[in-house]
Amino acid sequence: MFVLSGGKDGLIELLGAGTFILNNIQELPPELMPVIANLLETNTYTPVNRTKKSEIEPQICNANILIISEKILAEIDKSFGHVIKVPPLRVRKADINDQVEYYLRLFCRTKRLAKPQITPEALRRLQSNDFPGNIRELENLVERALVQSNCEGELTEEVFWSPETKKKRFRLNLLDANPKLRIFLCIPWLPNIINYGFTITFLALVIFILYLGLHNRYNNFALNLFWVWWWQIILLLFTFVGRLWCAVCPFIIYGEVTQKLSFWLWPRQLKSWPRQKAEQWGGWFLFGLFALIFILEELWDLKNTAYLSACLLLLITAG
User: Which residues pair with 23 in a beta bridge?
Assistant: First the structure.
């Protein structure tokens, strides 16, 4: 397989002390797996003997062998010296931007074309996909988008995914139906005015009224707004404009302000997000917090107690 007898050198013989990479090894025929396992375990190989007049002595492999596989192979799993497990693309969405940029540069350099820019909407759509086909599916999507756009202009959301027919359309995208609304929401200074102007001030005003106002729901505007209108409006609007609500969530805004002040007072590197622990315990942690809020609501009658409702808002914001 690797070396031909009779004077002709094969791959490993030509490599010498170089590096030999076997990509997508799971696609090789099953009968070749024992040969590769023997190569990994003994670091030797036997040249192919086509004449079969004499036996060929095993040769020592001096090359570094790297094997890339998309799944665990039981036949050779124990033969690896070092194993590096890379999580699938669905659990490392932050890497999608770098992966897309890499494929764009690679394909455009091969075709000698100018590299187009991907729009933020298209990138967010890619990051919301789970990619059952992992890296290969993303690579195919980028390549197809480049072919459809001919590397001209921008790569929009419609270039990556073909438009659905009306019979198959399950939802209405307000931004696609109203291009002017999309342009308005993409104004750079608009989010800062809403978040750091209105949202952060409005939450502070609500908490102030809850502390100093009347503690009866029927006489306290902030208490009535918090328990009667706020959560009900969120439940109704989340179905239609869920992303818009998350963009102006006051709890997140105060978190960003706190982080900026912290780094201004104490410059340092931001720690990496504990992804594995968050995936393992994050759901249970959030469930416990919601259960605690429900218990406090029932025990202390938060719906009719203004200052305790203000404490709850402060606790959620601090969290």
Answer: 68
Residues 222 and 314 in one domain: yes
CATH code: domain of residue 105: 1.10.8.60
List, in sequence order, the alpha helices (H) in the chain: 11-15, 33-42, 96-111, 120-127, 134-149, 157-160, 174-177, 179-185, 190-193, 200-212, 221-224, 231-247, 250-265, 275-300, 306-318
The answer to whether 32 and 1 have CB atoms below 8 angstroms apart is: yes
Q: Which of 79, 113, 138 is the last residue of a domain?
A: 79
Say which residues have a Cβ less than 8 Å from residue 272's Cβ, sequence separation at least 6: none
Instruction: Write the pLDDT tens digit of every residue in 1-14.
Output: 454 445 566 677 77
Shared-domain flag, residues 231 and 309: yes
Q: What is the pLDDT of residues 193-213, one digit of tens each?
A: 888 888 888 888 877 777 776
User: Domain limits at 224?
Assistant: 190-267+281-318
- Give tens-digit pLDDT for 57-91: 777 777 788 877 777 777 777 777 777 777 888 88
